[in-house]
Amino acid sequence: MRPLILGRIHVCDREGKEKGSPHELHKFTVTNQALIEVKDLKTHFNIEGTWARAVDGVSFSVHAGEVLGIVGESGSGKSVTALSLMRLIPDPPGRIVGGSVMYKGRDLTKLSYEEMYDIRGKEIAMIFQEPMTSLNPVLRIGNQIAEVIMAHEGLDEKSAMKRSVEMLSLVGIPDPEKRVRDYPHQFSGGMRQRVMIAIALACNPSILIADEPTTALDVTIQAQILELMLELQRKRKDAAILLITHDLAVVAEMCHRVIVMYGGKIQETADVRTLFANPAHPYTRGLLNSIPRPSKERKGRERLQAIPGNVPSIMNLPTGCKFCTRCEVKLEKCDTVEPDLVEIAPGHSVRCHLVSEAQQ
Amino acid sequence: MLQYFVRRLLLAIPTFFVCTVIVFFIVQLAPGGPLEQQVQALKAAAANERGGGGGTGMGDQAIPPTALAELERYYGFDKPIWKQYLMWLGVSPRPMESADLPVELNKPRQAGNGLTVVVTERNGTYTVSDATSPGVPLEGWQAEYQRLSAGTYQLRAFKTEYAGILTGFFGKSHRYQEPVWDLMISRMPISLQFGLIGIVLGYAVSIFLGVTKGLNHGSRFDVISSGVVFIMYSIPGWALGSVLLVIFSTDAGLNILPLRGFESTDYQDLELGSKIADRLIHFVLPTIAYTIGSFATLTMLMKNSLLDNLGQDYIRTAFAKGIRESRVIWLHAMRNSIIPIASRLGSLISIFLASSYLVEFVFGIEGMGRLSFMAVLTRDYPIVFAFTVFNVVFVLVGAMISDFILAMVDPRIKFK
User: Fold this and answer.
1) Which one, of B330, B85, B363, lies nearest residue B211 by Cα?
2) How many angstroms separate the first and last alpha carbons of chain A?
3) Which fold has domain B180-409?
4) Across residues B365-374, what is the average pLDDT?
5) Cβ atoms of A203 and A121 closer than 8 Å
6) CB-CB contact of A193 with A225 (8 Å)
7) Under 8 Å CB-to-CB from B77, ≥6 apart: which residues?
8) Half-sphere exposure of B401 (CA within 13 A, CB side)
9) At what angle do helices B272-291 and B180-215 cross, to 10 degrees?
10) In what order do the strands lie in the sheet with A50-63?
């Protein structure tokens, strides 16, 4: 049987080649031990004959115990990056065309489907943006949690169900003994995301990938859900969380380090304090400027600054800097020459001609 | 949920009556009823007897009015239509033909079975009683004057009975002079065979094909099988049947399969094994013709349903959990994909009436299709009404079964 068709993914990407050496990430954070190391990852999608480069040469590593954030607008390649780590890219049309994802000495991009079954859910777990549709509507909640436990820990159904109850109570669902017998439609959106977290944490994974876990939820629920994800690190000190979001407030709250993506490439990466205090890339600055900051002072009541224009079409990306079509400070060569990702301070790298030139 | 279905069942009762009333009245409104047809036949017979040109000038008066009145009475058209409906339902007594005898007032008359009846009159009402005890009403007997022609009446005594669909009596066919029930039962095996084979084949092939196509969406197999299924869908069964007959059953072709009928003429004399074989070879071509168009809808429904579910977020979740592909497909995706298929299962109940007039016509099979179609043409009301009853009941019950199955397979559906 052919590799399975997964859901449709919104693909937006760009042209242009990654030049220079893969970026070495800085060793700030809780530990220095790289849990997973992504090198020059390229995931492209074949759209009517042309290859769209959704992720084009992304390198980073996730360290044990940290929360790494990936931010960017829709279509910047952050979700595709996450799905590539899990090898959940629907093929066709998508394919990981290059790079490596090293995890415990093995390259995940080279593993067989058979071998990936033991990685997914057990070593790397993932929760998704849409809690309303991410659970199977015709299976009981308990079975959906027990399924992952039975698949990876070889427990029989009875003890797996017992664990399901424990997991439900861990994620704060009241009356878990009864609720395991319920179906997803009997849960609210926030409750369903709790169930998703229960499934993700069921086998104590070393990495939890959360793809916009709070986007679809009420603001009042968001903090609770984020707090629950940290539960993993309470259970397992060396576990890491890869948090994908477009919400900079969530990043500020949760992350140790941040990667800013645009056009399928990393544009800037830094620890969270540096990024907020001293953003170097015009895109990062644009993102930060578009956050409303309520203030009584005159300055705070100024008009919110939005980044002009839209994310360019995936089939029609600039050859130079991916951000040049919207950049307010672009140089002439930005149109044609793609800048390299340059380390401007320990742990702080930026892909921008302006910044590179100022350095020299 | 039980409450819901009880309510549905109660609601089905008025629906049933409304349907039957509408059909009962509309069908009888159409001209050219059995009476007219009978009259035409008599006229034609009379014209033949006269040698085609006797020129006696009788013309339209060929049927004596008394005979016409007898015919009317025979068919029950002498009663108002609402009374006919009640009689058909079985809530109003209908005269039994066997006990319809002309009598004279106060004169005993033999009524068969050693019974002698006498009709007495009192204050304008007529009482039928046993001749041994006049005046005491005889259970189930009635007497009334029948109008024969202008100014001519005949007193009749007749036994009545409650016989209608509510008592399980569907009347007697005008055309065949046999109880409708017997006529339908005798054709039931053909329908069941058509229906069962059609359904088993249809569902087995369609589900298998739909799943295979869904998992190989866009492949060469998918495209070609879609083409084949739609070509099959577009060929009328009877047209294909004629072609198949020429190929397989005539001297011009292979001549290996029987040309007509449902069984051989010597069927009754065969051994059990040969009987089955005989039925089978008679059934090959009609079954192909009957089922040819039935794959497309179900196959496409299955394929699209599976594809749709494979693209859902929860499938990605299942993969992200590290669940094996086979389990993801067969448990997660299939469990959801069969919901639209399962909701159609209720209609299976109508296999008892499964038929196709044209296919039966081409293959010379006396099945339900021919029975019902000819009944409409010849205004054989009891048969038409019987089919109406069965169809209405099957549709109502089928819908209920469908809903019940749907509630079984889809936990999101709750009936209140």
Assistant:
1) B330
2) 55
3) MetI-like fold (1.10.3720)
4) 88
5) yes
6) yes
7) B33, B35, B84
8) 14
9) 60
10) A50-63, A34-47, A94-103, A106-107
Q: How far apart are CA B224 and CA A240, in angstroms?
A: 49
Taking only Cα atoms into account, the Rg of chain B, rounded to an integer number of angstroms, comes to 29
A314-336 pLDDT, tens digit each? 777 888 888 888 888 878 888 88
Phi, psi of A310 (to 5 degrees): -120, 165
Contacts of A126 in chain B (CB under 8 A): 320
Q: What tokens does A170 get?
A: 């861990």
pLDDT tens string B333-345: 998 998 888 888 8
What is the Cα–Cα distance from A315 to A309, expressed in whole angstroms?
17
Question: How far apart are the CA of A290 and the nearest CA of chain B, in angstroms?
Answer: 31
Given a contact cutoff of 8 angstroms between Cβ atoms, the answer to whether A341 and A20 are in contact is yes
Question: From the list A1, A113, A136, which residue is nearest B314 (CB)?
Answer: A136
Give dist(CA B339, CA B316) in Å, integer: 20
How many other CB atoms are found less than 10 A from the CB of residue A293?
12
Q: Please say if the pLDDT value at position A3 is more than 60.
A: no
Contact yes or no for A64/A239 (Cβ under 8 A):
yes
Q: Are the C-beta atoms of residues A257 and A269 closer than 8 Å to each other? A: yes
CB-based contact B320 A88, cutoff 8 Å: yes
pTM exceeds 0.95: no
Domain ranges of chain B: 180-409
A199 touches chain B (CB under 8 A): yes
